[in-house]
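Listing S7. Sequence submitted for prediction.
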Amino acid sequence: MARHALFPGTFDPFTRGHLDLVARASALFGKVTVGVARNPEKQSLFSAEERAELVRASVKELPGVGVALVPGLVVAACEELGADVLVRGVRGGTDFEFEVQMARTNRVLNPRIDTVLLAPAPEFAHVSSTLVRQIASLGGDASPFVPEAVAQALRARFQRPRS
């Protein structure tokens, strides 16, 4: 039976680690929707709409993968989208503890939704959106850590006047 997975996150910005997880989720499930969250508690580098467009450009070659904005609870987005699985990435122990807590909470909110935790490929295990933003904001080249569309957007966002 084909399943529909929702991979939610703020993706500010979308990294190669995120792309790795989406590709692996698409191999596991019949359909994957990358849910770009609006989180009012976070100061975002890119708007939700910009982030969604960057994700779309990054996943366009992956079959069965779409992108949607997620304005509220992820379990509500699952209902709206018809997803029955949440996919979350875990890089280490701290992520694991947080994600298990969220999985249990989501299970109480909607017992129909299962959560699957995926570890990123080793070459991406250290990459975070925060790290990428720091590199780019300080004038570094973040392209080894992000898809090309995201690298271009970061360069445009952090253009420095030439001396």
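Caption to Listing S7: primary sequence and predicted structure tokens for the chain studied. Strands lie at 4-9, 31-37, 65-70, 85-89, 114-118. The longest strand covers residues 31-37.
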